[in-house]
Amino acid sequence: MTLTKLAGGTAAVGLAAVGALHGIWTFSPWPLVSRADFARTVVGVAEADLPTAELTAAVAAALGAASYVVAAQADLFPQVRPRRLVRLSVWGVSGVLLLRGAAGLATSALTSRPTDFTRWDLALYSPLCLALGGLTAYVAASTRAPRHQDRRHVIGKLADRKNQGR
Questions:
Q1: Structure pTM?
Q2: Cβ distance 143 to 4 under 8 Å?
Q3: Which end of the chain, N or C, is less packed with Cβ atoms under 10 Å?
């Protein structure tokens, strides 16, 4: 197995797992007991300010799509067309994850009063985003878009075939 496939597989599984967790959160505060604990620990807001189930489901779907494009770019799944869109999507996933990880570390580290959320953000959420973003960036950077052959080269090959047929 190549390093690109290993990185892509690891990132895809991580993204799928986080997506599945968001799917569970559309109807349950698992692994916590109450929505108030969940809001405070996982989201860092009051219970009244929790995102809607529809928004959480949209995040779950986006994470599922991100998992697919990373796996497809690493040649673990067939790619849909256009391939350029898949490759650009992988760069987009990487950018979002790296930005979330860096911003989370900065804002949680600079807070004057640590909360359950900021402790978890520093220990798990932001580092996980940085790790998944780094793996995804590696996949994007190590899988080059196929080069288009120079037209003159292709035309020359066609002319050679035509001349050989005479």
A1: 0.83
A2: yes
A3: C
